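Appendix B, Record 12. Input sequence as logged:
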Amino acid sequence: MQTIPSHFATDMRSSITKALTLGLITTLVAACANIGRPDGGPYDETPPVMLGSTPAPGATGVHSKRVKIEFDEYINIENASEKIVVSPPQQRQPVIEAVGKHININFEDTLRDSTTYTIDFSDAIVDNNEANPLENFVFTFSTGDVIDTMEVSGAVLNAENLEPVKGMLVGLYSDLADSAFTTKKMERIGRTDSRGRFCIKGIKPGQYRIYALNDNDQNYMFSQKSENLAFLDSVIIPSSFPDVRYDTTWVDTVTIDTIIKVDYTHFVPDDIVLKAFQEDYKTQTLLKNDRADKRKFTLYFNTHADSLPQIEGLNFDTTDAFIIEPSAKNDTISYWLRDSLIYNVDTLRLAVTYTTTDSLARPVKVTDTINTVTKKTFERKSRRRDKDEEEQVIPSLSVNLESLTATFDGYKDITAVFEHPLASYDREAMHIMIKADSTYDEIPFNFLPDTSHVRTYLWVANWEAGREYKLTVDSGTIRSIYGLTNKRIDRSFKIRAIEEYGMIVFNIKGLDGQPAYAELLNKNDSPIRKVTVEDGEAVFNYLPAGEYYARLCIDTNNNGEWDTGNYEEKRQAEEVFYYNAIIDLKAMWTIEQDWDLHAIPADKQKPLDITKQKPEVRKKKTRTRTYQGN
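Logged structural output:
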């Protein structure tokens, strides 16, 4: 037991006496004051309750364009334009406002005959104090003799990555013609929430086509190619049947209070999945040109193209005049000029011919005439210490070897990206050696151009796991088209040991012979490895230990990348699937996993960990207590 020194004990007694005295004075002063009622107390967690309305809920034969709904407390409306959906869609949006304990709705359009109107508030109605939401509140009336009660529901996902799409319009057509989506307004509509979920209510029995649309111009039809869309290939037939669900009430987070059996009407289909995409609608346009280096000019287009443009020199001869370096999608193209008589001309005039489309979306050739103007460049110079003379720095051909790290993966090739296109190299002046005891022995290798990148070359060899290597290239070995040569390259590296790797093998079911590729993803949903699916297997070798996710794309045209859809051609975007769980790979492990592509619905496949569009969670208001006195 610790003993407190006597002087500390005295100070403590003195402090306690002072505190008690101060507390007594404060209490007496407070007792004499006129204390106002505190703004606080227990939180109100009860949402507003509707007391009545004009017209009554579910009323028929309604002709008034005004609706008034009364609640038991003061209310507000949150994010009305985002959350409230009026169906059928209105040309002029109704005026919806909260006034005290009422909501007033004034329709601007003329009400249609024999039509069921639904005003879906979602959770937009909240009480004035704690913002408790009235969830899933829908007000319905009809101008005819009956209320249409059918419902359909489901989810809208981004076709490329299965992300839930928030705020997208979803609509029905009883006109089953394909042209209805592009020529007529939707008949009944809903809107997706933060989970991508939608519900369309007040539907008549019948057959319908269903679409989703990012309705930029708010005309309730697909009229702009820039609008994201989704469509279902099949017709839907709304129906219902009596069903039972079990609702559970809880004493606390772990203890069940009551399980209640609830009879309800089950509306179907309730599992529609629409996959949204944007069409490849852009027509190619030449945006600009650049000539920061006098030996090269670059053309920038607004979108990709299947072919390169044709170039005609108007003040120079283009015959064998340049080496072309296109980007992967031909939207950025550089032209390296070979001849100094050409690249020393300040302004080069060009005629650039490329494919675009006319007003009827037909391919046509257009020619733009441009001037490429060189920018001034300054040669690097260094001064002698005495500053009496200047000497020019001898330029050399720079090379990027960032891919060659001190510890290197044995399944890779060494990649070198050179500053300029190459004219020649001496293969005999390059060496790759393996360490054997204290000496190095040369090994065979190839030095090959990368067919996809003009300035990229590969050193290709059969690496042995766990061994140490050295790459050397003598100075002057590699020469660019401008006569620049390399400085000496001398790099040591070690190949990772087999024991540092693991392997993941997916046995794919549900492909039905279709071509596909699979990707491993990191926690940011970004691909880090891609393989072609062969004989129903996706095999990922030489993987560092770590956590992985996976997705698969049905590669219909076998081009190795995801392709979007086209409504006019009735072509869906290429189908994407996600493996539903994280894969935790350890070194020296081989994980073999069955993957049935159709075992889990598309809207439940993507792991929440890597889903960027998370379900929204409403935050409670923070209450403060305020005391007032005279």
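Residues 115 and 143 are 5 Å apart (CA to CA).
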